[in-house]
Design a protein that fits this description.
This protein is of the alpha/beta class. The protein contains eight helices and seven strands, in the order βαβαβαβαβαβαβαα. The chain has a seven-stranded parallel sheet with strand order 3-2-1-4-5-6-7, sandwiched between helices.
Length: 261
Amino acid sequence: MRPLGLITGASSGIGDGYARALASQQYDLILVARRADRLNALKSELESQYGICVEVLPADLTCDHDIARVEQRIRDVEALALLVNNAGFDQLGDFVDVPLERHLGMLKIHLETTIRLCHAALPAMRQRRCGGIINVSSMGGLGPLPQNSLYCATKAGLIMFTKVLSGEEQPHNIAVQALCPGYTYTEIFNTPGFAGLRTERIPRFLWMSVDSVVRESLNKLRPGRPVVIPGLANRIFYLGFILNPFGEQINRRMWSWLYPQ
């Protein structure tokens, strides 16, 4: 029997990358996202190319009803091998200028949804004494970025939640990982939430492909390794700037150049 993975935010970007990588490893998949048309197109492609079984589960994970449907699907699965909590979004802007519903939406999808899906998946994983969970966070959760208040706060909370969960689940042979990518080539930077960001000013060496990010995440998924920062340049950036006593000042100056107001 093939292993089964469930991926949220699977219709594009890093979620799409996980789907393709796991399909190539002969995982059956449950794909969750709002855009059913994209999920169905991906389902047809992966089933045709790899001979696996793909289930499409359209859901808006800022909606309680849809979260509950995904929770129940996880509980109904006999042997979920991997849960990838990837769904999320950002909205650049000063805290007071961003609509409150956008802030609350980030809280819902980044933290509450992730917590609920982990809680649904872990009992069966514990019973089988195997399994994995990847919570896609961000380097933005490792240090403050201007105009990203709720994004940084929720991603930081996700990292701490994952660290604690990883320690609890290590004795049960369950791997729990917070993936903290930096700038990654995805279409998210073309969405309205990133309007005004001068991406052309970001040095090319700081960018990574989706395939590289996903590959490093999966290669480093093991019990007791809770945080993965993919890419040597990102790890150097973290050590050189975020852990620097003047790192926050440097970040603010860099950000004002990337996101002029």
